């Protein structure tokens, strides 16, 4: 084998290992990469880094009036503290949303995965 053949084989093996590693880690990763920021009714800014993709996440007791999703996954916002009920808001990755006037504040969210 020539040096060029060895390099090609090395590049191909490296690419295959990287693909396997990324695919394997995606199932193991239990965190959304990025931040979810929100403003409370008292205009306090809260930032959550790399939240878990599992379960219901409570927001501040006063709730959130604006949410900024800077993660790589979508989220669903709920007006209840336990991620139940209707009147949900779907918030796509890299986007934000503010509640309408007189609408209840968001109190929890789940991550779509």
Entry keywords:
113 residues; 4-stranded antiparallel beta sheet; alpha+beta
**Which structural class is indicated by helix and strand composition?**
alpha+beta
Rg from C-alpha positions?
A: 20 Å
Order of helices and strands: HEEEEEEEE
Number of helices: 1
- Sequence stretches where pLDDT stays below 50 over 5 or more residues: 17-27
Mean pLDDT: 84
Can you list the strand order of the major beta sheet? Answer: 2-1-4-7
| Ends distance | 45 Å
What is the global morphology? elongated
Overall strand count: 8
The major β-sheet equals: 4 strands, antiparallel
Strand content: 25-35%
Proportion of helical residues: 10-25%
Overall description:
With 113 residues, the protein is an alpha+beta fold. Helices cover 23% and strands 33% of the residues. The chain contains 1 helix and 8 strands; from the N terminus they run H-E-E-E-E-E-E-E-E. It has one helix at residues 3-28; strands at 34-40, 45-49, 57-58, 64-71, 75-78, 89-91, 95-98, 108-111. The strands form 2 sheets. Strands 2-1-4-7 form a 4-stranded antiparallel beta sheet, with no helix packed on it. The longest helix has 26 residues, at 3-28. It is elongated, with a radius of gyration of 20 Å. It starts with a helix and ends with a strand. Residues 17-27 have low confidence and may be disordered.
Topology:
Elements lengths: L2 H26 L5 E7 L4 E5 L7 E2 L5 E8 L3 E4 L10 E3 L3 E4 L9 E4 L2
Antiparallel strand pairs: 1-2, 1-4, 3-8, 4-7, 5-6, 5-8
């Amino acid at each position: 084998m020539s040096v060029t053949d060895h390099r090609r084989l090395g590049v191909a093996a490296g690419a295959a290992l990287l693909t396997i590693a990324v695919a394997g880690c995606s199932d193991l990763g239990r965190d959304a990469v990025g931040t979810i920021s929100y403003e409370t009714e008292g205009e306090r800014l809260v930032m959550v880094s790399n939240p878990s993709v599992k379960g219901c996440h409570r927001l501040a007791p006063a709730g959130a009036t604006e949410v900024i999703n800077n993660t790589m996954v979508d989220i669903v916002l709920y007006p209840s503290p336990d991620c139940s009920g209707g009147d949900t808001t779907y918030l796509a990755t890299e986007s934000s949303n503010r509640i309408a006037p007189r609408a209840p504040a968001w109190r929890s969210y789940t991550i779509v995965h």
